[in-house]
Design a protein that fits this description.
This protein has 393 residues and is an alpha/beta fold. Helices cover 44% and strands 21% of the residues. The chain is built from twelve helices and 16 strands. Helix 11 links the parallel strand 13 and strand 14. The relative contact order is 0.16.
């Protein structure tokens, strides 16, 4: 089947076309088209993501991303009869469904006057978690496309997308790793930091989470305190690497490791951020000092992530560790986890996402859509979103 997937939960507008062969979880997934527009430049001006700004940008980018994904997949065909070839109430339904989406109805109708939509078997769309206005643009767009194509829309959990992206081997066999259960997933992004226990495919139980800031958010806020550009994660990572190579001493004092010894699998990162603020204490840092402080922060954040994850692996006797989400792009995290686990838990297989699939993307949404379909099928019911609202089929 061909899945069209849409991701608009935060500041990336992404659309993919993925061809599946077989049943989840042993299917293969060929990426026919994968288009992504990042809003980072716009949000960098404000130092963070504002939901209404994100929503407007998604509305502008969705049709161009659709064109790009279709054209990569060689599925972009001119329309024979233009808008006249649509079913008579399609135009009306598209207009109604996209009413509040900043001109998206006009962009889609303009697209449909030039191009036709290919046969797609299902549309997978992120339905949460994420920024509400941003999510709704994607969901409404999915509904409008489904109206024209005549296919179901499957709502997808963004975090399940991150888990499956980490298991997807895009370079060798285009398939998900056949993992051993129980598995522990550490999900580290700009909006979330959580440890999830996975007893089987589709069976997730959140066993720990941050009580305040997500770790990616802490990277971003610390970068901002140091006057570094948004998003801060990659920049902190780059600078920390320089400091580590040069073996520079810590900037002032050792930063705290919040909740390192707490009797649970929860995290807290806002105190660490505040400790960085106190360490800077209004001073203008030299480049070397910025690098040292970036390294000190990264050391503290990753140590807590590692220790809590090791504790969860022990507690649940996990056979597999999956790390996903934007912060899993961090080199130091990747190396530290791989090296430490090899020593402490040599029997545990560790899965990290391909670098292109670490941060938000829509390929992971297609994978999660396929998983969702399998789970729903085995339960005998599937929750589709229809053009006229939510209903169970
Ligand atoms: O998963 P993601 O793309 O979006 C959310 O679902 O939040 O994660 C974005 C987060 C940002 O906070 C960003 O700073 C962080 O991932 N990030 C990194 C790196 N690349 C992205 N953090 C540390 N090191 C990196 N190399
Ligand atoms: Zn994400």
């Amino acid at each position: 089947m061909i899945i069209l997937s849409i991701e608009t939960s935060c500041d990336e507008t992404a659309i993919s076309l993925v061809q599946t062969d077989g049943e989840f979880p042993s299917a293969t997934y060929e990426i026919l088209g994968n288009a992504l527009h990042s809003q980072i430049d716009i949000h960098a001006e404000f130092g963070g993501v504002f939901p209404q700004v994100a929503k407007r940008e998604h509305a502008l980018a969705l049709v161009p991303m659709l064109i790009s994904a279709l054209s990569q997949a060689e599925l972009l065909e001119p329309s024979e009869g233009g808008l006249a070839s649509l079913k008579h109430d399609d135009v009306e339904k598209i207009t109604t469904v996209l009413e509040r989406e900043d001109g998206l109805a006009t962009f889609l109708l303009e697209f449909l006057s030039k191009y036709s939509l290919p046969e797609i078997n299902m549309i997978a769309v992120t339905s949460g978690p994420g920024l509400e206005p941003a999510l709704w643009v994607g969901i409404s767009f999915a509904k409008a496309l489904a109206q024209v194509i005549g296919c179901p829309v499957v709502p997808v959990n963004h975090m399940e997308g991150h888990v499956l992206a980490s298991l997807y081997d895009v370079e060798i066999d285009n398939a998900l790793a056949p993992i051993k259960f129980p598995a522990v997933a550490l999900l580290v992004s700009g909006g979330h930091t959580e440890i999830v226990l996975m007893k089987d495919w589709g069976k997730y139980e959140k066993i720990g989470q941050t009580r305040d800031d997500a770790v990616g958010e802490a990277f971003d806020k610390v970068a901002r305190l140091m006057g570094l550009p948004y998003p801060g994660g990659p920049e902190i990572g780059r600078r920390a690497e320089i400091a580590r190579k040069a073996n520079v001493p810590p900037y002032k004092e050792v930063l705290p490791r919040p909740m390192l010894h707490s009797d649970d699998f929860d995290f807290s990162f806002s105190g660490l951020k505040t400790a960085v603020r106190y360490a800077i204490d209004g001073a203008t840092l030299t480049e070397d000092e910025k690098n040292a402080l970036a390294r000190d922060f990264e050391d503290a954040a990753i140590e807590v992530l590692l220790k809590k994850t090791q504790k969860a692996i022990d507690h649940y006797d996990a056979q597999t560790l999956i790390i996903g989400g934007g912060v899993s792009a961090n080199n130091y995290l990747r190396n530290t986890f791989t090296e430490s686990l090899l020593k402490s838990h040599p029997h545990v297989e560790i899965y990290l996402p391909h670098r292109n699939l670490s941060t938000d993307n829509s390929v992971m949404i297609a994978l999660a859509g396929h998983a969702q379909l399998a789970t729903a099928r085995s339960a005998g019911a599937i929750q589709f979103i229809s053009a006229s609202g939510n209903r169970s089929l």
